[in-house]
Amino acid sequence: MAIDENTVRRVAHLARLALPEARVAPMAAELNGILAWIEQLNEVDIEGVAPMTSAVATPLPMREDVVTEGGDARKVLANAPKSEDGFFVVPKVVE
Amino acid sequence: MSDLTKLSLTDALDGLASKQFSSREITDAFLAAIDRANPHLNAYVAVTHEKARAMADASDARRAQGRAGRLDGAPLGIKDLFCTEGVRSAACSAILGEFTPTYESTVTANLWAEGAVMLGKLNMDEFAMGSSNETSCFGNVINPWRSAGGNAQLTPGGSSGGSAAATSADLCLAATATDTGGSIRQPAAFTGTVGIKPTYGRCSRWGIVAFASSLDQAGPIGKTVTDAALMLSVMAGHDPKDSTSLPVQTPDFVAAVGRSVKGLKIGVPKEYRVDGMPAEIDALWEKGIAQLKDAGCEIVPISLPHTKYALPTYYIIAPAEASSNLARYDGMRYGARKVGKDLTETYEATRASGFGKEVQRRILIGTYVLSAGYYDAYYLRAQKVRARIAEDFTKAFTQCDAILTPTAPSSAFALGEKAGDPVQMYLNDIFTVTTNLAGLPGISVPAGLDANGLPLGLQVIGRALDEETVFAVAGALEKAAGFSAKAQAWW
User: Fold this and answer.
1) What ipTM, to 2 d.p.?
2) What CATH number did the domain enclosing B201 receive?
């Protein structure tokens, strides 16, 4: 399954990464190099194997649905590139 | 008093306890050593002089009152991946800019609760993605070790290159590190230090910048096996803030180091004898096998048949998880924002300018293998092969108590040597990545020098939550190898 240049453009957009046009072809070549190496996984017999989704088979713990920490807008906003009156300021989303 | 920075963590704590020197004295000795060496080694990306001195003075006051903790007064280095309150934590990525957490990671909080002193933040590959510490936005770390007679700059390994170089060059007593595919053990092997990745879930991931959540684990790099055991004893422990943190007691790892290994069965996997591996590494492995036999272990040949599929599996799962974890860096809540003509362009410009080349490559692979039409062929298949790899270990551990392998397929290589070929770089982690996929503990112990005088490591892998056996075997290897070589200071 080789990646063509259009796929690289589409994936870069899905990942919200601006990829200069000059980088598209080299990136396709790099990704194809890695994917060609990954292809060897097709040799493995995975018939009837359940996918491993966690490193240690243990149930996820439940806890009471109560507030533990929070309520400190000042701390939450401390690293914001732009904030005002206790809110994040972001570019306009809806016209 | 001789040079305090040369002490092991254990000896330094003894010296502090017997009042031979104060925490302030040893802390000042380390700060002076860092100020001298760091322009040459680039191991630290931030040195917290004032905070270190304040923590040291507080430690001395506690000790005077007889309230000293297990690490009281011991100066440590902290990998930049750990969030430290009030101190920039950037994961060595430009996208985090001057991000200064308003909270403390659980692992570092555990260290401070036992009195440890922070010297500063340690360099690493950007977001822990790399095996040579060449992807950091703060530049390469230089390995304190050089080939005999040469002066080429070598990699300290990665991603915990700063942690390994600082520990090796006596710029801290020990350091925190993290390991997603080998990032603690390979740098330890390249610098003649000890590094352990514990069982997945032993250390809390809360407050550690996420790379691949099902693989990431914190662990220490230290000068001796006992030092690593002491560090891990303090770092580990259940934390309700990380739902994958295991609700188990932390055993006395230090006591386990001296435990007899007589009668233990040590597995030697035939699949780890890879083509092109230097004969010296094979010989070192044989020597380790002979040393454990002499110590009373029984050597058992084992098979881990899916070993060769571990790295390709990892290079689907890790980028997939990374592409999801790194979606949060959008320039809205923290980090540098690059404004475009609309919101989408702002996201795209922010991420393109903030993430480095290797990180962008992995985000693209991860996005691709998770995208509609490819999910089953890549991601789901990789999760199934991962199950096969874990099953290999489960079967092997019915025949043996621990597994002995080399840590890395080479000694430290020159900076720039593998930077052009991602797959060649990825092959560095061939012996370490399997334990991340299976969630098992693995330690690297310095075992000898190659013909160029560079350190080589052996890896001991154990059953899940059986770090005690891992430490016991590592202790036996350390004793038999008698490794005491240090890098000749040129910095």
Assistant:
1) 0.95
2) 3.90.1300.10
